[in-house]
Each structure stands twice: as C-alpha cells, then as structure tokens.
Amino acid sequence: MNAFFAELGERFAAVARRQGAAIAPPELDPELAEELLALARAVAHGRERRFAPLATFLAGVSVERLRGARPDATDADVADIVRAVREALDREPPADGSEGEVGEPAGPGG
Which end of the chain is more exposed for a tag (fewer CB within 10 A), N or C? Predict the structure, then answer.
C-alpha cells in the first residue's frame, strides 16, 4: 500500500523468523486497506472508538481463515467480505454508550 506498511510487513516477518517461523512479509491490498479503514471508522463512530483496532484485528483473522478455507479467494473477494460486515454495521443505530469492557454485551438486547 505504501512504504510504511511494506516496512511493517518486513518487521512482522523478521520477528516471526526470530521465533522460528518463516513467513512471507504480509502485504496490504489497497482495496482491502480502504475497507479496513472504513470498518474501523464505522466501529469508532457507531460503537466505541477503542473497539476499532480490535474490529480490524478480527477482520484480519477472518480474512486469513477465509484464505485457508478458500485458497482461490481473491483480494476483491476478501474486500467484499469486510465491506459486507461494515455495511451491516453502518445500517445499525449507533450505540448509546452502554458498552462495558471488551467482551461484554452492549446493554439490553446487545
């Protein structure tokens, strides 16, 4: 996506090597990057700001599981999945601020 993310990917790969795991430096597809940023924005504005990084982490875990289950999945397929989740969040009413700690349900009915 840009030099910062390329360098960050190299750092993750280097640390993994030091831990005994040879991994390719992760790359960030521009379309997927835009969807992840939109997801973070939707969570930050519709739920709670501090949940945005965790939401993008969960998206990343889901992406890797998708790629494991469907090795033929393209970057566009992956971006579509993140987009679908983000669009569903966008349709929900904003949270009323009743969220508790991470992992707790959001107030009544949540």
Answer: C
The predicted pLDDT at position 108 comes to 41
pLDDT exceeds cutoff 80 at 101:
no
| Torsion on CA atoms 67, 29, 78, 16, rounded to nearest 10 | 30
* Gap between the Cα atoms of 13 and 78, Å rounded: 22
CB atoms within 10 A of CB 32: 23
* Pair of tokens at residue 78: 């992956």
pTM assigned to the model: 0.76
Mean pLDDT of 38-66: 94
- For the chain, the structural domain boundaries read 29-91
CA distances from 6 to 12, 25, 26, 85, 100 (A): 10, 8, 8, 26, 36
Mean pLDDT value of segment 14-29:
95
